[in-house]
Structures are given as C-alpha cells and as structure tokens.
Write a structure and sequence with these properties.
Blueprint lengths: L1 H21 L2 H20 L6 E7 L9 E4 L4 E8 L5 H4 L4 E3 L5 H9 L15 E4 L8 E7 L4 E6 L10 E6 L1
Parallel strand pairs: 1-3, 2-8
Antiparallel strand pairs: 3-6, 4-5, 4-7, 7-8
The structure holds copper (II) ion (CU).
The site of copper (II) ion has 7 residues, from loops.
Length: about 170
C-alpha cells in the first residue's frame, strides 16, 4: 500500500516536474509565429533595388517604349530624354502616369489648356501618379516615385496633340 502511494506520489512529482519543465518552453513556442511572419515578410516586401527606366521621345512624336514594367512599391527612377531637335514650344515631350480610372482622352483634352502648368491640368492633379516636366529637343529630365499598387496604368505625353502616338502601359506586378 505504501509502495503504491509512493509510486503515485513520485508519479505526480514527475508529472509536476514535467509540467514545470515544459513551462519555460511555452514562451519560446509563442515567439515562433512572429518569427515565421518575419520570414514571410520579404516575399511581400517591395524590392529594395530601384527600377531604372529610360524613356525617350523624338521629333517623330513617339516614345521608344510603349510598355514599362515595375514591381509594386518599387522606387522608380525614370529618365525622359528628348532625342529630337525641335524646341519645347513646337515639340515638347513629357511623361504623365495616370491614376487608374482616368480617361486618357479627358486628361489630354484638359491638358491642352494647361500650358502655363506644363500641360498638367491643375484640377486633375489627383489623377496624376507622377509626371516629368515638359522638355524640348536635346533635353533630359528625371523623376523618382514609388510604384503604385498592382495593375496596369496609362502613361502619355500631355503636350497638345501628342497622346495619340505618345502613350503606353505602365504595368505594376
Ligand atoms: Cu510629346
């Protein structure tokens, strides 16, 4: 009888000891999920390398690219080069990236009247994700912006009459 009590007591002790020894492990187990989240984070984090985009337009009223692809949240360093000889007043070029849901035609039409604001209609500023200034032949301009959320966006040159041939898709993956 005594033996069995002792056995029971020691069993209880062992159980308690086991239980105790398990307790310190609990915080360690609890820290695992955040660690896993940290590991998963780089997969969704934007790339640290910027996207270098070189776009040019000449006197032929065309961009050399009609498609630009970047990653969501990526820093975009865009250089626009006017490879022509015509002055800004006759053949100005810019790059305007429109927010989704903005009509290319509506924007271009409004831009005709916005010469004083570099062909960016002030009342449509919220429809513009990023834009360069307007440049003439031989000039270069650079902008830096953060790529918006995944999707396909329109870009254009908003100089009067240019968007028909100077437009393209800005794809964010
Ligand atoms: Cu142009």
């Amino acid at each position: 009888m005594r033996k069995s009590i002792l056995a029971l007591a020691s069993a209880a002790f062992i159980f308690a000891a086991c239980n105790q020894s398990k307790q310190p492990e609990t915080p360690a187990t609890e820290t695992t999920p955040p660690a896993a989240t940290e590991e998963a984070a780089p997969a969704v984090a934007p790339p640290t390398e910027p996207a270098i985009v070189e776009l040019s337009g000449g006197d032929d009223m065309k961009y050399d690219k009609t498609e630009i692809t970047v990653k969501e949240g990526q820093t975009v360093k865009l250089t626009l080069k006017h490879t022509g000889k015509s002055p800004k007043e006759a053949m100005g070029h810019n790059f305007v990236l429109l927010a989704s849901g903005t009509s290319l035609q509506d924007f271009a039409t409004a831009a005709i009247k916005a010469k004083d604001n570099d062909y960016i209609p002030a009342d449509m500023a919220s429809s513009v994700i990023a834009h360069t200034k307007t440049i003439g032949g031989g000039e270069t301009t650079e902008i830096e912006f953060t790529a918006p959320s995944k999707g396909t966006y329109d870009f254009l040159c908003s100089f009067p009459g240019h968007y028909g041939t100077m437009k393209g898709h800005f794809i964010v993956e």
